[in-house]
Amino acid sequence: MFSPAAPGRGAPPAPAEHQLIVPPLNFAMIAPGIYRSGFPNPRSHPFLLKLGLRTIIYVFDGDCQPYHQEFIRSNSINYQHFRVAANKEPFEEMDHPLVAQILAEVLDTRNHPLLIHCNRGIRRVGCLVGCIRKLQGWAMTAIFDEYQHFSGTKIRISDQEFIEVFKHPVLINPKFGPAWLTDQPE
Amino acid sequence: MFSPAAPGRGAPPAPAEHQLIVPPLNFAMIAPGIYRSGFPNPRSHPFLLKLGLRTIIYVFDGDCQPYHQEFIRSNSINYQHFRVAANKEPFEEMDHPLVAQILAEVLDTRNHPLLIHCNRGIRRVGCLVGCIRKLQGWAMTAIFDEYQHFSGTKIRISDQEFIEVFKHPVLINPKFGPAWLTDQPE
């Protein structure tokens, strides 16, 4: 009835023997149905397949790599690319209405399970996740702490400032918004 | 039909006005049904309630704070306390059979949604999460990177070594193991 997930007697855990799982750079689960990462390389594609993704959202002001587009197409994953420039002190800031539009897609459960990624999984995605936490009502302390888990010492004050000042309305269809964004327990 | 999650015209997002959400230190979602953190303080209890936790597992070789025990009792949360000492170079190491026993509880979906926490959410929990990633077959690069997201510059080689050498069988009832640990997509 019970089976060991890892064989004993000196052998490494079973899955590692079969296939090495390589998640994309800075991969993490944000909340039920939503994952974040940097740009997936071909080695991380088997892992992404295991997530059963319905949607991949790419936020970067450049083109998507052809190998990744091919992966998305051949696995019938819904794909959206938003060309978002990063915050840059002192004058350039992510476009607030565009960020609100992306958040509305990310927070629509009809798109879940969903991966949102940029290139390194630090700045653009960090700002979007920060805005989601703000919608959840998180304290800025916790929001900045999470941002810094991924940025390490490369914190950008401009990103934190963007998260703090972001107030654009995010249109969420109440029928399809995630339960964890409202007061219902999961 | 559509309602704004955040009101426009200069007002901050709605939830922040009502109640400031304070997740516990180093809070994160590991995978569907499993959360990690440091020791929750009273301010983070409303947030934990929103997660609808069925189980809280505390791993630390000291007693649990009375206010937290009271919170767990009054909300009918299943509670397990495992007295685990941290890894300490050069001679002390977390107890392998005990860690395997904790992992079996964490990976039993009958206990989900579940929070596993230690005191700072870095070392003991970091090792347990590292072992879960190993059971998932993750590359050590990704496992150590995730550990370091929470440890920052306070990386302990003894923890990483523990994760790498851990091979004790983990008894998972196949009927109640999480789908993401097997090959089924979520």
Automatic annotation (TrEMBL), chains A, B:
Its EC number is 3.1.3.48. It is an enzyme of class 3 (hydrolase). The keyword Transcription does not apply. It is found in: Cytoplasm. One of its GO terms (molecular function) is protein tyrosine phosphatase activity. PROSITE patterns: TYR_PHOSPHATASE_DUAL. One of its GO terms (cellular component) is cytoplasm. InterPro entries: PFA-DSPs, Prot-tyrosine_phosphatase-like, Siw14-like, TYR_PHOSPHATASE_DUAL_dom. Keywords: Cytoplasm, Hydrolase. Residues 26-179 form the Tyrosine-protein phosphatase domain. This is Tyrosine-protein phosphatase siw14. It comes from Coemansia biformis. The gene is SIW14.
